[in-house]
């Protein structure tokens, strides 16, 4: 349990540091989950250079989140509402990052 908490903490720290990083994605790059071209829709690239479509990664995370699926979906729905403040949006994103780090 301590090891999982430590790993989740490291992932949260790495996610926070991603604001200052970038990656070069080649035109033929494929999603590591579905093997379709990653540039065909919204995607994420991790520091290890693995690239995932946003929806593919979301499905994978939800499968690993078991008991927290509903909470993750609720937070995602709140993000898509147009009338939230920027501070509320930041908190929701921070909460989602933490949940994803735990589930992944």
Report strand order across the widest sheet: 1-2
Helix content: 55-70%
Individual helix count: 4
The end-to-end distance, rounded to whole angstroms, is 14 Å
| Large-scale geometry | globular
- SSE topology string: HEEHHH
Radius of gyration: 15 Å
* Percentage of β-strand residues: 5-15%
Number of domains: 1
Number of strands: 2
Overall structural class, as computed from helix and strand content, comes to mainly alpha
| Low-confidence region ranges | none
Please sum up the structure shown:
With 104 residues, the protein is mostly helical. The protein is built from four helices and two strands, in the order αββααα.
Would you give an account of this structure?
The structure is a single chain. The protein has 104 residues and is mostly helical. It has one domain (2-103). Helix content is 56%, strand content 6%. It is built from 4 helices and 2 strands; from the N terminus they run αββααα. It has helices spanning 2-17, 54-65, 69-80, 86-103; strands at 43-45, 51-53. Strands 1-2 form a two-stranded antiparallel ribbon. α1 crosses α4 and α3 (69-80) runs antiparallel to α4 (86-103). The radius of gyration is 15 Å and the shape is globular. The model has no long low-confidence stretch (mean pLDDT 84).
Question: Topology, pairings included?
Answer:
Elements: H1 2-17, E1 43-45, E2 51-53, H2 54-65, H3 69-80, H4 86-103
Antiparallel strand pairs: 1-2
Helix pairs in contact: 1-4, 2-4, 3-4
